[in-house]
Specification:
Helix content: 40-55%
Radius of gyration: 32 Å
Largest sheet: 4 strands, parallel
Order of helices and strands: HHHEEEHHHEHHEEEHHEHEHHHHHEHHEE
Structural class: alpha/beta
Number of helices: 18
Shape: elongated
Strand order of the largest sheet: 4-7-3-8
Number of strands: 12
Length: 518
């Protein structure tokens, strides 16, 4: 029997009846890689700290059986409390970095955060007592002088009111002069290093009283709630926290108070529970205005379940040295009316410049690993300069402002900067800093709800939010990420031979997305 050749039409008709799909894909699935919280996090570089501080951080971590990240990050906040507003790093030309920091450590409950906070901050309260004792005579003198001037003005006004017409004009003029003088006399506030109340209004007022600097240190992290406006109606007042990090002028002009802060320097050292990061990440004002980009984040692994029952206590000499050095550094800088200029040595400048050049490509929106958190990463090089200044002052307690920052100190600061970069990426994963990851997470929720073993892109498009995925093409980055993480497998494209719209791409879903798990 002779076989007739097929013309083009017959061939496509025959092919359209065939199942051209590839053989079924393997049924074995590896465990998917979670979208968030699985980054390889850097260890805290305790060795980058000056000797006396390194010894104390390690000893606190051992005695409390907590991650060194907690004590180490808070130690930087302690140094920033001592030096913030009283020193600045001169990087290049007009580029100067103040030495205050915002640091947030995320740890679950039962990690002895309060014990670590107490050990690290105790010498700050001791230094505050020293400052109060030293300032008390001048405060009392100013109070007495102000009270006497007020009484003199009141007496002169009373005398003028009772005077005869021919004497009254001169007495009124004298009373006015005395009243103006009394009004100009100011009683200094008691020195304060740490604020108990972290509302925006209180922080601004305290800055105005305390020579433009204040620190907020808390083991509970309620300041995030305050910043987010949890305890106030309307839009949260973030101005003082934004300007207090950068050192920008802050002016308060309201009916109840008027304050002008020339160079605000706010330091923050807090510990929060991981879910608090997720909550504040949803705060549109905090994200849009750049508050979250000002913090250095640490997300250490909890040691709960692995702690020793009898750890080594902190050696007495290590604790005494730490307390003395923090007090001495704080008192040495407290009386400065202008920030101490900290210069970079030529070698330190080159190390910092080279680091800046390495960071810059990482900020690119498309291919840069920090492109999705450029608000935070854009401040990284400046943060490293600040850390270098703090390490320098801690290393040279007696004469830090007279010496240049060394290359070794700068390289230690760079290592700390890389540590905070590693943890910052993880923090913004939790807070939703990467829109592709956020959208992929949203798709996972949809797929779990639908329970599809296999689905088409067209099917999925009918179930997602059009505000999040306005077009089918908008699904592609998130689907690609889910495929990379092992949640999905793209099926080979089907060809029908027809002239109409091509079939929608199809995917297999990981069994965990459609099979009840034990």
């Amino acid at each position: 029997m002779t076989t007739q050749p097929l013309d083009g039409t017959d061939m496509w008709a025959r092919l359209s009846q065939l199942d051209l799909r590839a053989a079924p894909m393997p049924a074995v699935w590896d465990d998917p890689i979670p979208l968030k919280g699985q980054r390889a996090l850097a260890d805290f570089p305790v060795h980058a700290l000056p000797g006396w501080l390194r010894d104390f951080v390690a000893a606190v971590a051992e005695e409390t059986q907590t991650p060194a990240d907690l004590a180490g990050s808070l130690a930087l906040s302690v140094l920033a409390t001592a030096a913030g507003g009283r020193s600045e790093v001169h990087v290049r030309g007009a580029w100067k970095e103040p030495t205050n920091l915002y640091v947030a450590v995320a740890l679950p409950p039962a990690n002895r955060k309060s014990a670590v906070f107490s050990l690290l901050t105790d010498p700050l309260y001791d230094a505050e007592k020293h400052l109060v004792e030293a300032a008390t005579p001048a405060i009392v003198e100013a109070q007495v002088t102000a009270q006497m001037a007020k009484e003199a003005a009141e007496h002169a006004a009373s005398k003028a009111a009772k005077a005869s017409p021919d004497e009254q004009d001169a007495l009124v003029e004298s009373a006015q002069a005395l009243a103006q003088k009394a009004k100009t006399l100011k009683v200094p506030a008691e020195p304060q290093l740490l604020a108990d109340d972290a509302t925006a209004e209180t922080v601004a007022s305290t800055l105005a009283e305390q020579g433009d600097r204040i620190a907020v240190m808390s083991a509970e992290g309620e300041i995030f709630d305050i910043m987010a406006g949890r305890y106030s109606s309307g839009t949260p007042n973030l101005g003082v926290f934004l300007k207090g990090h950068a050192g920008d002028r802050h002016k308060v002009n309201r009916q109840t108070r008027k304050e002008y802060i020339e160079d605000p320097a706010v330091t923050i050292g807090i510990c929060v529970q991981p879910q608090v990061l997720e909550a504040i990440g949803r705060n549109e004002a905090a994200r849009r205005r750049g508050l979250l980009g000002r913090f250095l984040y640490s997300l250490p692994e909890s040691l709960v379940g692995y702690r020793k029952s009898e750890p080594d206590p902190i050696p007495d000499d290590v604790k005494v040295t730490y307390n003395r050095n923090v007090i001495d550094l704080t008192l040495a800088l407290a009386d400065r009316t202008e920030p101490a200029p900290l210069q970079l040595s030529p070698e330190a400048y080159v190390a910092h410049r080279d680091y800046k050049d390495r960071v810059e490509p990482r900020l690119r929106k498309r291919e840069g690993v920090l492109g999705h958190i450029d608000d935070w990463a854009g401040k990284l090089v400046g943060a490293v300069a600040r850390i270098a200044g703090l390490l320098h002052l801690a290393e040279h307690l007696e004469n830090g402002p007279t010496l240049s920052i060394s290359e070794e100190t700068m390289r230690g600061a760079i290592e700390l900067g890389e540590y905070f970069t590693s943890h910052g990426l993880a923090a913004f994963d939790v807070m939703g800093g990467d829109p592709t990851t956020d959208r992929a997470t949203s798709l996972l929720e949809t797929l779990r709800a639908q329970g599809w073993p296999e689905f088409s892109k067209r099917q999925l498009m009918l179930k997602v939010s059009r505000s999040e995925f306005p077009t089918a093409d908008a699904l592609d980055p998130a689907l690609g990420l889910l495929e990379d993480h092992g949640y999905l497998r793209a099926l080979p494209a089907q060809r029908t031979g027809g002239r109409g719209r091509p079939p929608s791409p199809r995917y297999l879903a990981h069994p965990r997305l459609h099979t009840p798990q034990p």
